[in-house]
Amino acid sequence: MERTLVVGVDGSPESRAAADWAAREAVRRDLHVRVVHAWSWQPLALPVDHDREAWARRAREVLDGTQAELGRRHPRLSLTVEAVADVPVPALLRAAKEAEMLVIGSRGHGVLAGFLLGSYGQQLIAAAECPVVSVRARHGTAVPGSDDGEVVVGQQGGVADSAGVLGFAFEAAASRRAPLRAVRAWSPPPVYGYSPGSMWIADRFAGLEPFEKAALEQALEPWRTRYPEVDVVAHVELGGAGHVLLSAASDAGLLVVGRQIRESAPGARIGSTAHAVLHHSACPVAVVPHR
């Protein structure tokens, strides 16, 4: 079965930046790109009543323009385009059902304001079964960045908890021939949170930070073996996960974080760490769902 990457486009500068990033990623990973433009025609009352044919023509123009631009920039790219008469979120979720990843765009507002993810983007990230990559654009153009920059990945929990996140990050680093920085942020428990178990851990590892370093190395071990060509830096730092990751990824080419699947939780919840980096990281952010 052909490995596929799906990218959603709507003709905006943000979606053009996402499509170009998706094309470069697909060439590196030998993936087929499926460009999807979702549009939903709703007849309007006065003063204007847009007809369905006009919406369909606009959809075709968006896809034709995207196909021509990507074909010109990436002549080796395997590419198909598709217009779907539906609202964006369910249409893109269906398209990405069997995909390796889904790529979307987001708009930048500057260093302080961060990036506008939008309700569609947050819903897609919260519901997608595959990794979702959010690509930035600012003032009508893609945010400057280098695909050659290191890949930064956030690791938490045990070996099984972070397997999908680390697997995605290692493959991304290998395809780029880029170094990988694996980051584990930790915070000491509050005074009332200390227990015989936490004291045993601190005693066994001569402190909590050595325990965190050992946990990170244990999680990395199988992936170092699988991808021996990837140069890995293990980074353990005291602090909140969002802040630590944003600092570590200031010059990165890609930031990878996890999102725990919460089937019983209502609404578009993506977790505080993913939320922070999606809104403030200048480089593309991949959010990988995991159990």
From TrEMBL:
Which InterPro entries has this protein been placed in?
Answer: Rossmann-like_a/b/a_fold, Universal_stress_UspA, UspA
Q: Which domain of life is it from?
A: Bacteria
Domain UspA, by residue range, is 3-136, 159-289
The text of the family note is:
Belongs to the universal stress protein A family.
Record-given protein name: Universal stress protein
> What is the scientific name of the source organism?
Streptomyces racemochromogenes
